[in-house]
Amino acid sequence: LMERKPHTKINRKEVILAKLRKSCSCTPQKLKKFVMDFFPVLRWLPKYQCKEYIWGDVMSGLVIGIILVPQAIAYSLLAGLKPIYSLYTSFFANIIYFLMGTSRHVSVGIFSLISLMVGQVVDRELLLAGFDLNDDAPPALGDGSPQNDSMSNTTAFNLTIAGINAECGKECYAIGIATALTFVAGVYQVLMGIFRLGFVSMYLSESVLDGFATGASLTILTAQVKYLIGIKIPRSQGHGMLVITWINIFRNISQANLCDVITSAICIVVLVTAKELGDRYKHKLKFPLPTELVVIVVATLVSHYGNLNEVYASSVSGAIPTGFIPPKVPEFNLMLRVAVDALPLAIVSFVFTVSLSEMFAKKYAYTIRANQEMFAVGFCNIIPSFFHSFATSAALAKTLVKTSTGCQTQISGVISAMVVLLVLLFLAPLFYSLQKCVLACIIIVSLRGALRKFRDVPARYHVNKVDTLVWVVTMSASALVSTEIGLLVGIVFSMLCIVVRTQRPRTALLGQIQDTSFYEDDLEYKNLSTVPKVKIFRFEAPLYYANRNYFLKSLYRLTNLDPNLEAARRKKYEKKEKQHLKKGNHGTANGLGIGETTLQLVPKQIDFQALVVDCSSISFLDTTGVNTLKEILKDYKNLNISVLLACCNPSVIDSLKRGGYFGRDIGCMQEMLFYSIHNAVLFAKDQK
């Protein structure tokens, strides 16, 4: 046996106290380090290489700003809010991430999936408060009109219960819900950073995230169809929104607005063609074509001078105010209503941001701090929530554009924020006549990447069937039930798949590779030779309570021997033999002769004298696992078959020692435990 190194026992109490003393001490150096770590911009900005970086940062910042404005206005439809709030969100998120983020390349701001999750909560609360979810419905309160008195009373009652003044109308209440949700999500993210709970993101596998994104994209697509064809249907809420919305669309398809249909068709053709050409010739283009901006400008001019709203009743964006609304503290009572909804929002926002940060950090050979990213995205939600903004996250599409246009640092984010500020202060009213169907087209075309995941299903299935099943289940639940439920279903289902795979793992009998000391699966490889009088069994999973029975069944099936049944058969044989000898009879009660009875009860001829268990794939043992190995050791010993363990890792050996597998005499470990299968086989052959 190899000699183990002695391990000094760690006094956890002293370690914790030492860490607390170190954390609670305050020196000028520690304070400076804390500030520099909390605001990474203080580290890299003084070292900024202006001549080398400034051109790429300015170009990427301008391009992202130009893309950000139409996307922000469009994604306001998803969030169920006015476009001005999306512009606020894009402005503040870029500034705060510039100060606190550790990634040089990610673009943090408004994101379609996050906007959808916010919009679903906003719609639900508006419905519970008694508001009409129809976008073109007149405000129920605060407009001075006597219409809809019953609706106004209901709304006023609900608003008072929620802690909002009765003068607050639909728009005010909607942004109040959104800011409360955003604030709570940001608090969750900061708390996760303080308690270092970033490991939560590990439970969101790539299959779960891709399935969630694709399912949510189907929901987003469905929500925009009514704007594409210009029909007035209520915004569906609750589980099964996708199916209900499509039923309502087909019921009201006859009311489609021809102007909106034609506009949508033209915009989608132009946007898709430009995207495809951009993808095909991206190596020749210095920066992406600002197709969305061109489409929005042209569509706004056509709508304004063609009076499409007045003549064809085409739905338009409406007035977008300039400047900033005075800041306001999010309502505490509303926070209580959305506290549960904020948790999945916080996790999804953090996971997308960190995964993108790590991906681009690895690509460009620098490091990020995941915990600081948690703080950064948390404060990108907390601080803007006071300024009428909603939840943000990193977005893959805009990040890819940033890197392709020469981005070097987050200075590009400041440039993008300045472009948004220019729109906020001066240009926002110019978008009054912009048709909503144009915004819906921009949203739908932006989903191309997520919807293309359907084409990858055959390749994904070929690589791993279980991961494909996880993707399908997550996507289906996200689309057909709800995004939050879909995410939860995906996480739980992927964990169940892992449990099932450990419950019924691969098992095999091994044969020897000729003229070597190596052994492999006899069913998978040709020309393996069996070892006389020795069976070698491999179990490819941890041995614990959930797979104990499967371990035993597989062992008995592959060795063609159940020691319990064989022991019972032998006892019965011995008992019958004694009875016959005692009576001296040559016959039995059932009329069979002694010879015939003996043939029925004769013990089975066992073709091996040693069982070697290959433990190389057993990563750990629990109490049940140790007891199972002790059980087979005892059962096979009764049949004069020795059980030898091979290739055990140190944690398994420690578990066996603590469980008393080797008995009181540790010295006998040399005859029970081996560091290779071949050593165990040689020992078994030498046994008499």
Q: Any descriptors?
A:
elongated; Transcription Regulator spoIIAA; mainly alpha; Sulfate transporter; 28 helices; transmembrane; SLC26A/SulP_fam; S04_transporter_CS; membrane; seven-stranded mixed beta sheet; single chain; 688 residues
Helix and strand topology:
Elements: H1 12-24, H2 28-38, H3 41-44, H4 50-79, H5 83-100, E1 108-109, H6 112-128, H7 149-162, H8 170-194, H9 206-229, H10 241-251, H11 258-280, H12 291-305, H13 308-312, H14 332-363, H15 370-385, E2 393-394, H16 396-404, H17 411-427, H18 436-446, H19 448-451, H20 457-463, H21 465-480, H22 483-503, E3 507-513, E4 519-521, E5 528-529, E6 533-539, H23 548-559, H24 563-583, H25 594-601, E7 608-614, H26 623-637, E8 642-646, H27 650-658, E9 673-674, H28 677-686
Parallel strand pairs: 6-7, 7-8, 8-9
Antiparallel strand pairs: 1-2, 3-4, 3-5, 3-6
Summarize the structure.
Keywords: Cell membrane, Glycoprotein, Membrane, Phosphoprotein, Transmembrane, Transmembrane helix, Transport. With 688 residues, the chain is mainly alpha-helical.
Tell me what the structure shows.
This protein is mainly α and 688 residues long. The chain folds into 2 domains: 40-133 and 169-500, no CATH class; 507-570 and 604-686, Transcription Regulator spoIIAA. The protein has helices at residues 12-24, 28-38, 41-44, 50-79, 83-100, 112-128, 149-162, 170-194, 206-229, 241-251, 258-280, 291-305, 308-312, 332-363, 370-385, 396-404, 411-427, 436-446, 448-451, 457-463, 465-480, 483-503, 548-559, 563-583, 594-601, 623-637, 650-658, 677-686; strands at residues 108-109, 393-394, 507-513, 519-521, 528-529, 533-539, 608-614, 642-646, 673-674. The strands form 2 sheets. Strands 3, 4, 5, 6, 7, 8 and 9 form a 7-stranded mixed β-sheet that branches. Strands 1-2 form a two-stranded antiparallel ribbon. A hairpin with a 5-residue loop joins strand 3 and strand 4. Helix 9 runs antiparallel to helix 22 (483-503). The model is unreliable at 137-166 and 588-592 (pLDDT under 50). Keywords: Cell membrane, Glycoprotein, Membrane, Phosphoprotein, Transmembrane, Transmembrane helix, Transport. GO terms for molecular function: secondary active sulfate transmembrane transporter activity. Residues 524-684 form the STAS domain.
